Amino acid sequence: MALERLFRRRRTQGEVRDVPELWTRCPSCDAPIYKKDLEQNLYVCPKCSHHMRFPAMRRIESLADAGSFEQTTRLKPADPLHFTDTEPYAKRLERYQKEAGRPDAIVGGRCLIGGVPSVLMVMDAAFAGGSMGSVVGEEITRGAELAAQEGRALVIVSASGGARMQEAALSLMQMAKTTLALDRLWAKRLPYVSILTDPTTGGVTASFAAIADVILAEPGALIGFAGPRVIKQTIRQDLPEGFQRSEFLLKHGMVDKVVDRRMLKEAVARVLKQLAGGARAAGV
């Protein structure tokens, strides 16, 4: 059987039927990849090391010590503005929740990372593009407060298109709220590590994602505030190639290190142990 047939949708009695396929293709190098191999490789292409979008719960499994994760996120979004564009926001939320299997674009809780007590918050790009609304902002805030209260490190994995337009100013307010919540963590000299993944843009980049003690990023991640077309129109200058990718930002000081996803837990654990050790040495 030709390999290409495995990528096609199958027909049953004249009707198209979706069947889970055994193979997929890398969007970067177009290499065929056996899906189980891709999952075992943490959704990193074994041919070219392209980092694909990573499901939120798999992300947690890859970072938290086995059996240590205790979920604390449980808030559900509301629609106080009764926003409607091509469809009511309430209906959009129902669809997003059904597709993603969670109330909003974030999941998090207590865990151990390399033995270090931590609060791990992971944004889910599969839910409305990971956009930040009131629930995401509140859960990030509560996560920071929980870490400060219990003396834990805070690790946030960002994957977001920015503020959620359907919540208007309420969404933009989350930038200030999440930033202020981190003050409680810093007052106790507790470590905060931010992990930037593809994509991390808009109000998330302009708030909690970019003000950590240590900022790590995955290879090739799109990171920025506005899109390149908007920036070019504003400053009226040509932009360097790849200027919003993690490698470029590493060279220019916004990112501390670009880390392959397969080595990310080890890198995060090492940073947390160093920062936690420094806090103990300072008598905090």
TrEMBL record:
Component of the acetyl coenzyme A carboxylase (ACC) complex. Biotin carboxylase (BC) catalyzes the carboxylation of biotin on its carrier protein (BCCP) and then the CO(2) group is transferred by the transcarboxylase to acetyl-CoA to form malonyl-CoA. It catalyses: N(6)-carboxybiotinyl-L-lysyl-[protein] + acetyl-CoA = N(6)-biotinyl-L-lysyl-[protein] + malonyl-CoA. One of its GO terms (cellular component) is acetyl-CoA carboxylase complex. HAMAP family: AcetylCoA_CT_beta (MF_01395). This is Acetyl-coenzyme A carboxylase carboxyl transferase subunit beta. Pathway: Lipid metabolism; malonyl-CoA biosynthesis; malonyl-CoA from acetyl-CoA: step 1/1. The keyword Coiled coil does not apply. Residues 22-284 form the CoA carboxyltransferase N-terminal domain. PANTHER family: ACETYL-COENZYME A CARBOXYLASE CARBOXYL TRANSFERASE SUBUNIT BETA, CHLOROPLASTIC (PTHR42995:SF5). The lineage of its organism: Bacteria, Thermotogati, Deinococcota, Deinococci, Thermales. Its EC number is 2.1.3.15. Transmembrane segments: none annotated. Its cofactor is Zn(2+). It is found in: Cytoplasm. It comes from the Bacteria. One of its GO terms (biological process) is fatty acid biosynthetic process. The keyword Zinc-finger applies. A zinc finger (C4-type) spans 26-48. Belongs to the AccD/PCCB family. Binds 1 zinc ion per subunit. GO terms for molecular function: acetyl-CoA carboxylase activity; ATP binding; carboxyl- or carbamoyltransferase activity; zinc ion binding.
